[in-house]
Amino acid sequence: MSGDAARPGEFDQGAMLMRLPRATVVDRLAFVSELVAGRRVIHVGFADAGCTEMQQGAGTWLHARLAATAATLVGLDLDKAGVENARAAGYEAYAVDCRDTEAVRALDLAPAEIVVAGEVIEHLDAPGAFLDALATLVEPGGLVALTTPNGNGLGNALLGIVNIEVTHPDHVVSFTWRNLSTLLARHGWSVVEVHTAIATVKGARGSGALTRLGGALLLGLTRVLARLGAPFVADTLVVVARHERD
Q1: Backbone angles phi, psi at 135, to 5 degrees
Q2: How far apart, in Å, are the Cα atoms of 79 and each of 13, 27, 29, 30, 83?
Q3: What are phi and psi of 158, to 5 degrees?
Q4: What integer pLDDT is reported at residue 3 of this predicted model?
Q5: Can you tell me the distance from the alpha carbon of 197 to that of 29, in angstroms, rounded to the nearest whole number?
Q6: What's the confidence (pLDDT) of residue 86?
Q7: How far apart are CA 44 and CA 127, in angstroms?
């Protein structure tokens, strides 16, 4: 065998080219709210630490949107202060590390039909353990709805030309469609739906009019390209998966 030939169990470069699945561009909040309508739901990472006031003020706090459509809703979060604030507001909520399967089991919650984990997995240094713990929260055949920034989004690809990256300072993982679906499969989840979503421009401390205009133009270009048949230029992945537990 020549040195250029692939050995058994290895991939050549051609095998690394992946055809992306069909996807539609959705409004993230509206899509997830409709998905959980009438269902028993557990929302992981619901407190949205660091962004709660901004989201509530803008009417974009996902947990409140889910509460309006779900049959039942339980919030789980590592942020103890956020959990206490939610309880004071009348929500059922518990403080727990959702990477810890035993701690999640110890809550002894009724199995959900669907678990929502919006913008959480990219913060975690153990995303596989997180997916294992989520499996204990759903009934057999239950669903998870994951949203996470798209590692192949157009924005950072273009900004890289001028040596700029836009990312949350607490993010440690960036997912593309392919590596997220592979991770899900390794932990017993089978993808049943895939969509993308496009962010909106929000005010930021210290951002000037030129920065906001640039952001709006970039998102406008993203929307045009997505409508023309390239949904994976969008900045957010929206994936629904079913757990294949026996």
Answers
A1: -60, -30
A2: 43, 27, 22, 25, 6
A3: -75, -40
A4: 46
A5: 9
A6: 95
A7: 13
Structure tokens at 27: 């409004």
SS3 of the chain: helix, strand, coil, percent, to 5: 40, 25, 40
Gap between the Cα atoms of 209 and 145, Å rounded: 35
Residue 102 has a pLDDT of: 97
Q: Which residues are CB-contacts of 226 (< 8 A; sequence separation ≥ 6)?
A: 25, 196, 198, 233, 234
pLDDT score for 1: 37
Q: Give the model's pLDDT for residue 11.
A: 67
Closest of 72, 66, 123, 71 to residue 97, by C-alpha: 123
Q: Which residues is 92 bridged to in the sheet?
A: 74
pLDDT at residue number 236? 96
**The token pair that represents 152 in the structure block:** 């192949």
Six token digits for residue 41:
């739901």
Q: Reading across the β-sheet that carries 189-197, which strands appear in turn?
A: 24-26, 189-197, 236-243, 138-149, 112-118, 40-44, 72-77, 92-95
- What is the per-residue pLDDT for 58? 55
57 Cβ contact list (under 8 Å, min separation 6): none
Could you identify the residue written with the tokens 């996470």? Answer: 148
Beta-bridge partner residues of 136 = none
Kindly give, in sequence order, each residue whose CB lies less than 8 Å from that of residue 30, ignoring residues fewer than 6 positions away: none
- The answer to whether 158 and 48 have CB atoms below 8 angstroms apart is no
Residue ranges, the chain, pLDDT below 50 = 1-4, 6
The answer to whether the CB of 112 falls within 8 A of the CB of 142 is: yes
pLDDT of residue 207: 55
